[in-house]
Amino acid sequence: MRCGYFGAGTWGFALASILGNNGHSVKVWARDPAMAKQLQETRTHPKLPLIEISSNVEFSADFGYVKKGAEVIVESVTSTGIRSVFERLGVLDIPVVLTSKGIEQGTGLLLPEVVSSIWKVNESPLIGALSGPSHAEDIITNAPTSVVSAGYDPMVMKLIQELFTTPTFRIYPNGDILGVCFGGAMKNIIAIACGISDGLGCGDNTKAALMTRGLHEIRKLSVVKNCKPETLYGLSGMGDLCVTCMSRHSRNYRFGKLVAEGLSPEGARQQIGMAVEGIYTCGSARELARKHNIPAPITEVTYQIIYGGLDPREAVKLLLQRAIKEEHL
Length: 329
Fold this sequence. Notes:
Layout: E1 2-6, H1 10-21, E2 25-29, H2 33-42, E3 57-60, H3 63-67, E4 72-75, H4 82-89, E5 96-98, H5 111-118, E6 127-131, H6 136-139, E7 145-151, H7 154-164, E8 169-174, H8 177-199, H9 204-222, H10 235-246, H11 251-260, H12 265-272, H13 277-291, H14 297-307, H15 312-320
Parallel strand pairs: 1-2, 1-4, 2-3, 4-5, 5-6, 7-8
Antiparallel strand pairs: 6-7
Helix pairs in contact: 4-5, 8-9, 8-10, 8-11, 8-13, 11-12, 13-14, 14-15
């Protein structure tokens, strides 16, 4: 198929590489003309220097050129940038595959809802999502990976499987697109908290507790987005939570660890040099929790560390001082 791909970060590069290797014709839009030129000439990404991308993949900073003639649109921009990209794309009559993870601030919309709102529909059958425990650094080296395709229409889920499946990239369909996208967004907040915990030297017990109680927090909040709770125990929930909280490749985990080690949130973000989705999503999730009066203590203290100047050690104390209630799963 002819694929118009928007987003040329490491994640976009890795997925575009899969599409190219699978024989599809791919045009990738990079916002920065200098980056588009570098990618087109070197055929490698500066942060993934050992892998040369297929000749089926072309890079360009010309937005209209990448869109023109596409039979499917794939995005890997950021949750903060997705609205502006789709406003430029306009209403489409071809399938769209969302691969970014986040919740829009102010509206509380998940990314499929953002696109639907731009198109002025409730649930567009053309919108699908690809999500799950997957780092670009592992995908590009063909490490065995399992993820989820989701959509409002089974035909779009099947299309995603056909586009991206390889012998080492296994895709399971899941009709709960909102649950898939919610789990993928929320796990980034918990990963920041786990990075902070490790940066403070709190140990594995603490991280296990944060991940478990974090999943519980995600499940409580998922109700307000009409997600199926069981989705959060699958690849796009628990699976993505595990890889993001424990991997050296996780930007969100590294961000939290750097903050705990003494860098300011802005200093940590600059050192990573790529998007850290949990920073933005933390504000969105806090808005949701407060709007619906749902306690979200891990999200709240993480927000206060990022935006309110709370000392990470004080955050640990605040969590430990909370009243103990019976564990509900």
